Amino acid sequence: MQQVVLASIRYFAVCRDCAAQAEWWGVQALVGDELRWDVECLCATCGFAVAICDGDLPAHLRNRLLAEHGHATLRVAPPVQGAKVMRVLRAELGLDLTDVRAALERALTGTHSGTLPEVEHLARRLRASGIDATAEPPTVA
Predict the structure, then answer these.
(1) Alpha-carbon distance 41 to 55, whole Å?
(2) CA 71, CA 49: separation in Å to the nearest integer?
(3) Each residue's pLDDT tens digit, 66-91
(4) Secondary structure of residue 40 in the 3-state scheme
(5) CA–CA–CA angle 4, 131, 84 (5° rounding)
(6) Using alpha carbons only, what angle is made at residue 28 by residues 22 and 34, rounded to the nearest 5 degrees?
(7) What is the rounded CA–CA span in Å between residue 121 and residue 7?
(8) pTM (two decimals)
(9) Distance (Å, rounded) from C-alpha 68 to C-alpha 52?
C-alpha cells in the first residue's frame, strides 16, 4: 500500500453565508494514485460549515503551499529513456511537444519542482512506466 502524501495550509477567506472572515483549512493529498484538494471551514461568526472534497487547487493557494512547505524536487535516475519520460510528462502535465522537452530537461537536471504531493504523484507515474524516479522532499530550514 502506498503512503499518503500531503501538504496543508490554514487561511482566512470570506464566509459564504455572513461575509465575515472565516478560518479555512486546505489539504493537497496524494492518496494512492489520486491527487486531491480538500477544504473545510467553520465560521465562528455564524456557524456556517462546509467541507469540499476533491476540488481544484487555486493558484494562489498552491503558491502559499509552496511558500510554507517549500518545493519538492523530481529526481530521475540514469539511464534515462527520454521518449518514455516525455510520454509520462505529456500525459500527466498536459504539455505540448515544445513544453515537454523543457520539462524533460528539468526532470533530468533535478530542477522540476512543485508541492510534495504533486511531485510524488509524477514520480509514481514515472515508476509505473519503469522509470526510476523519486520525489525529494523540501529541505527544512
Answers:
(1) 14
(2) 31
(3) 999 999 999 998 877 888 999 999 99
(4) strand
(5) 120
(6) 140
(7) 13
(8) 0.88
(9) 22
